[in-house]
Write a structure and sequence with these properties.
Structural class: alpha+beta
CATH class of the largest domain: Alpha Beta
Number of helices: 14
CATH superfamily of the largest domain: Bira Bifunctional Protein, Domain 2
Distance between the termini: 61 Å
Order of helices and strands: HEEHHEEHEEHEHHHHEEEHEHEHEHEEEH
CATH topology of the largest domain: BirA Bifunctional Protein, domain 2
Bound molecules: adenosine-5'-triphosphate, magnesium ion
CATH architecture of the largest domain: 2-Layer Sandwich
Number of domains: 2
Radius of gyration: 28 Å
Oligomer: single chain
Largest sheet: 8 strands, mixed
Shape: elongated
Helix content: 25-40%
């Protein structure tokens, strides 16, 4: 292959580089998740970045936008169809079944943080590779699982200072009550076919619930009169939903019941919810999830109810206030004032400092002594060692005091001054 020399390559459309300045804010999301979710007994899980395509076709559902048009699917060298994961719940249910986690105390509570891939129209807050933090509790249908799961996401967003958050909840009932409801909804849509958006009309039979999501004016008008799942819940489903609401009330968590809340994945049953931030523009969804009582079984495992959510890391950061990031501490900056001998000796001092668990930085760019001291101040070094060919000096950057020292004693001296030495 011949490459044009001057061509400057760029990251693919819809992707971005996480630069060092950004990665510190992202680490704050990770440590808050570890604190909030770990504190509630959730343990971290990682699944592969790609899975068999069939997992998502079966798990997320053939009729969803995700499976129909958003997946990055490819064939590997062995002719298998694989897909970069567009979401995390189906893989975790696969892992639950594959590792026989039903034998563990239930529910099994798991959290994850990683990147996900969807072929979408790239815009602010919408990317083709993005990060999600998520939590799943598998193995119990207790409404307390639902309420706790919702509350954990609300708490996480609160800890991260996500502004103007609103919680909407709904219930999609169980598959049995949904079949009867679906027929009534399809009949309603058929009776108003001419008023519907083209894309809704062609999917009446495939995915009628998605009509609630349309922003087409004619469709919205038709949906105002449409039968609502929330009015068609079985007594058991209604009771479950009431119990979830009572617990959110008891915990003082504000929410709105949204009878038209549908989510873009087929596996949801009973509780669904979404957290949005008014601080975001058009892409206002920060996180959401719900209960998926049939998913593990649908993937070939034994029946196990589940509940979980995912939140977008980039949207969290977009909706969060600016938070000061603490600069990392540098214990020792090793400067060089001399020739080759000094450079080698300086290298050894930095290495010794690191062995003693110091954060040590070494001059790497051949700066003048003045430039090195400036660099040491820039990285906020506590001590600067100026290593020469025959002698060295140690400067305490807090007091400005400088003493001549033997090169071999520099690290021991700092440890002694800080009360860490032998
Ligand atoms: P949206 O309505 O914005 O398309 P969604 O319903 O597809 O969101 P989920 O599948 O529920 O989103 O994923 C949970 C969260 O992941 C979203 O609330 C959002 O914060 C984030 N997310 C989803 N898709 C993207 C994307 N393409 N880029 C960035 N973040 C995303
Ligand atoms: Mg989407």
């Amino acid at each position: 292959m011949v490459y044009r020399v001057a061509e400057r390559l760029q990251a693919p459309r819809g992707t971005f580089d996480v630069l060092p300045d950004d990665s510190e804010r992202r680490e704050a999301v990770e440590s808050a998740a570890r604190r909030v979710l770990g504190g509630a007994g959730y343990r971290r899980i990682e699944t592969p970045a790609f899975e068999a395509t069939e997992l998502f076709a079966r798990g997320v559902g053939d009729s969803t936008d995700i499976v129909q048009k958003e997946m990055y699917t490819f064939e590997d060298g062995g002719g298998r169809s694989l897909t970069l994961r567009p979401e995390g719940t189906a893989p975790i249910c696969r892992a639950y079944a594959e590792h026989g986690m039903h034998r563990l105390p239930q529910p099994v509570k798991l959290w994850y943080l990683g990147s996900f891939f969807r072929y979408e129209r790239a815009q602010a807050g919408r990317y083709r590779q993005f990060w999600q933090v998520g939590a799943e509790a598998i193995g119990s249908d207790d409404p307390a699982v639902d309420a706790e799961s919702i509350l954990l996401l609300a708490t996480l967003l609160d800890e991260l200072d996500v502004r103007e958050v609103r919680l909407r909840i709904g219930s999609l009932g169980s598959p049995d009550s949904r079949v009867a409801y679906r027929e009534r909804l399809v009949a309603h849509l058929r009776a108003h076919e001419e008023e519907l958006a083209e894309e809704v009309r062609v999917r009446i039979d495939l995915n009628p619930l998605r009509a609630f999501d349309s922003d087409h004016p004619g469709t919205r008008e038709v949906m105002r009169e449409a039968p609502r799942m929330i009015d068609a819940l079985s007594p058991q489903d209604a009771e479950h939903f009431a119990a979830v609401r009572a617990m959110l009330d008891a915990a003082g968590q504000p929410y709105e019941v949204d009878p038209t809340l549908v989510r873009g994945l087929d596996y949801y049953t009973r509780t669904v919810f979404e957290l949005t931030s008014d601080a975001l523009g058009a892409q206002s969804g920060v996180g959401g999830g719900g209960r998926y009582d049939g998913l593990v079984e649908q993937l070939g495992g034994r029946q196990a109810p589940g509940m979980g959510w995912a939140a977008g890391v980039e949207r969290i950061l977009l909706a969060a206030g600016e938070q000061p990031v603490a600069a990392p501490e540098v214990d020792l900056f090793v400067a060089v004032d001399g020739g080759d001998g000094a450079r080698t000796a300086a290298f050894a001092v930095a290495a010794e400092g690191r062995r003693a668990r110091m954060h040590a930085q070494l001059e790497l760019a051949g700066r003048s002594l003045k430039g090195q001291l400036k660099q040491a101040a820039r990285v906020r070094a506590r001590y600067v060692a100026v290593v020469g060919d025959t002698s060295s000096a140690l400067r305490d950057m807090d007091t400005g005091e400088q003493t001549d020292v033997e090169t071999e004693t520099i690290v021991a001296r700092i440890l002694r001054e800080r009360g860490l030495g032998a």
